[in-house]
Write a structure and sequence with these properties.
With 341 residues, this protein is of the alpha+beta class. The protein has 8 helices and 4 strands, in the order βαααααααββαβ. Belongs to the cation diffusion facilitator (CDF) transporter (TC 2.A.4) family. SLC30A subfamily.
C-alpha cells in the first residue's frame, strides 16, 4: 500500500488568472514529484453577507403586521371569507418574515467545532417551515370556502372590502418589490413568495368585491377563496421541492454532474475522475469533492487548474479535490460512490 502523504491546501485568492478564458495548456509543475503520492486541494468561496436583507426584513415585518390588523378588521366588518382568508395568509406572512429574519441572523454566526459548516442552512430550514405553514393555511381556506359554497353568505359592507383589499394590495406589492434583490436566498425567496402570493390574493379579493357589488353573486367569494388556496398551495409546493433537494444533498441541476465530470476529464493530465460529489449547502453555495486520477510524475498543479476552471465556469467556489496516481486508485464502494463513464 502506498503511504498517505501530506495535504496541499490552495485558497482561491492565491491563484488569480489575468485572462478570462481558462487554458489547460499551462506548464506542468514537476517540482511536486518529490512530494507525497497522495495530495489534496481545497478552495474556499467568499461569504454571502445579509445585512441589507435584515434591514428589508425588519421593514417588511412592520408593514405586514399593519396589513394583518387592517385585513382582520375589514374581513370581520364586511363578512368576506376571501378577505378573512387573505388575513389568514397575512398571518403566515408575518410568521414567515419573522422566521426568515431569525434565520438570516443565525446564518451570520461563524462555524464552530460542532457546526463546521456554520449555520447557513438555518435559512433552508426556515424556508421549509414557511412552506409547511402555507400548506396548512391552504387546507383551512379550502375547508372554509367549501362551507361557504354550500351555505352562501352575503357580503355586508363592500366599501370596507374595497378599501381593505386595496391597502393590502399596495402594501404587499411594495414589500415584495423591496425584497426582490435578495431572492437568490431560498429563505428570503420563500418569504417573498408569501408576500407576492398575498398581493395576488388581495387583487382577487378586490376583483371579486367589485363583481359582487354589481351582481350580488355571493358564490364568487368562496370561488375566489379556492383560487387563493391554489396559489398558496402551488407556491408552497415549489419551496418544499427546492428545500427537499437541498437537504437531500442533491446536485443543483440535473445536468450539472455529467457536465462537470466531462469537463474535468478534458484536462490533458487527468486520466479519470471518481467519487465525484456535487451538492448545495444553500442555493447560492455549491460545493464539490472528487478524486482525480493522474499519471505518475504529475504534480498537484492540476488541482489548482481544475479549481480555477470550476470557479470560473460553474461558480463553484468550495472545492475539495484528492489527487491519485494511476497505481494507487482508492475507489470508495462502501457508502455513496458513483461510477462515472
Amino acid at each position: 500500500m502506498p503511504k498517505k502523504g501530506n495535504s496541499v491546501v490552495y485558497h482561491e485568492d492565491e491563484y488569480k488568472h489575468e485572462h478570462d478564458e481558462h487554458d489547460y495548456n499551462h506548464k506542468h509543475d514537476t517540482d511536486h514529484k518529490h512530494k507525497s503520492e497522495h495530495s489534496h486541494g481545497h478552495s474556499h468561496g467568499g461569504h454571502v453577507h445579509a445585512g441589507s436583507s435584515k434591514g428589508e426584513m425588519k421593514k417588511a415585518i412592520l408593514l405586514a403586521s399593519t396589513i394583518l390588523v387592517i385585513e382582520v378588521l375589514g374581513g370581520i366588518i364586511s363578512n368576506s371569507l376571501a378577505l378573512i382568508s387573505d388575513a389568514g395568509h397575512m398571518l403566515t406572512d408575518v410568521g414567515a418574515l419573522l422566521i426568515a429574519f431569525y434565520a438570516i441572523h443565525k446564518s451570520e454566526q461563524k462555524p464552530n467545532d460542532r457546526m463546521t459548516y456554520g449555520y447557513h442552512r438555518s435559512g433552508v430550514l426556515a424556508a421549509l417551515i414557511n412552506a409547511l405553514s402555507l400548506l396548512v393555511i391552504t387546507v383551512i381556506i379550502v375547508w372554509e370556502a367549501y362551507n361557504r359554497l354550500i351555505y352562501p353568505t352575503a357580503i355586508e359592507n363592500s366599501n370596507v372590502l374595497f378599501i381593505t383589499a386595496s391597502i393590502g394590495l399596495v402594501f404587499n406589492l411594495y414589500i415584495g418589490w423591496s425584497m426582490k434583490g435578495h431572492d437568490e436566498n431560498i429563505n428570503v425567496k420563500s418569504a417573498m413568495l408569501h408576500i407576492l402570493g398575498d398581493a395576488a390574493i388581495s387583487a382577487g379579493v378586490l376583483l371579486s368585491g367589485i363583481i359582487i357589488y354589481f351582481t350580488k353573486w355571493y358564490l364568487l367569494d368562496p370561488i375566489i377563496s379556492f383560487v387563493i388556496a391554489f396559489i398558496i398551495g402551488l407556491s408552497s409546493w415549489r419551496i418544499l421541492k427546492e428545500t427537499f433537494f437541498i437537504l437531500m444533498e442533491s446536485a443543483p441541476d440535473n445536468t450539472l454532474f455529467e457536465q462537470i465530470a466531462k469537463q474535468i476529464k478534458k484536462h490533458p493530465q487527468v486520466l479519470n475522475v471518481h467519487d465525484l460529489h456535487i451538492w448545495s449547502l444553500t442555493p447560492e453555495r455549491i460545493m464539490l469533492s472528487a478524486h482525480i486520477v493522474v499519471a505518475e510524475g504529475v504534480g498537484s498543479v492540476v488541482i489548482q487548474e481544475l479549481q480555477e476552471m470550476l470557479q470560473h465556469e460553474y461558480q463553484i467556489k468550495h472545492v475539495t479535490l484528492q489527487l491519485e496516481h494511476q497505481h494507487e486508485i482508492r475507489h470508495s464502494t462502501e457508502m455513496f460512490s458513483l461510477d462515472i463513464g
